[in-house]
Structure formats: structure tokens, C-alpha cells
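thoughts on both lines:
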Amino acid sequence: MLDTSLCTETEPQRERFRRDVLAGLSARPKQLPSRWFYDERGSVLFEEITQLGEYYLSRTEAQILRDNAAALARFAGPDRPIVEYGAGSAIKSELLIAAATPPQYVPVDISGEFLAQTAGRLRQRFPAVQIMPVVADFTADFVLPASLPGSRTIFFPGSTIGNLDRATT
């Protein structure tokens, strides 16, 4: 039986949002962390943006992953869970999951609603893989499922790193 629960981050989102808004509106210049763009609607909009002709990065990265999926699977190692930070729709992860067939895949994303949809789709496509979504901001402390073994592969594709500020990185 596949685990269908969503793990949640340790700090309540509302309190973190309040702190970020107060700090951001007090700053010069005013700013807000990009993580707050990615609720369900923001995640859907981002996916739509990645389909635009001008947004070649996603297509290029997907092609690189397709061309190298077998090598990445060998690098990940057999029977090792894959943990992905900022999973979103996990479209690129599907290429690695298909090649590596890990026992578990742990998508970590800040948007719980969007992550639940992604997890449902992945469970249908990969019934032999235990999909264990974690709703969390990966730039803060969060807890991975306790049932994961110690040895894991961390997968961090995409342009997410461009959304991080220097203090986070």
C-alpha cells in the first residue's frame, strides 16, 4: 500500500508568511521572497510560463536529462530513494524516476495543493515507487519521512536556484 499522506513542515506557513511580509515591507527597497509566489495558482502559472517559446531553459534541461537519464540513474545507484527540492510538477524528475526506478521518491515543495496533484499523477505512472510528498520550504529546516534509509540521492534540477537570495545560498 502506498503512503498517501503529505508531510508538513515544522513551522506554520502563516507565521512565516507574516514574518516575511513584515521584514520585506520594512526593507529598503521593499521585497518579498519568491517562495510566496508558488501557491497552487502561482505554480500553475509557472508551469504555463515554462511552455512558452521564449522559455527555452526547461526544454533544454529536459533534453539534457533525456539524453543522460541512464547515466544519472547509474550515478544515483540502485535502490536509493530520490529526494527532490522544489519539485513543482516533477516533469523532469519523471525522466530520472523512469530510468532509476527508485524505491521511494520524495518531492519537496512549498505548494501543498500543487504537490498533492503531482504526487497523485506520479503514483498512477509509477505504482512500484512509493511517492512520499513533503510540503516544506526547503530553505528552512524540515523533516523527511522517517522511513527513508540514510543513503539518498538529492535531485535539484531547474532554475529554482535562481530564485534564492544570497543569504539563503
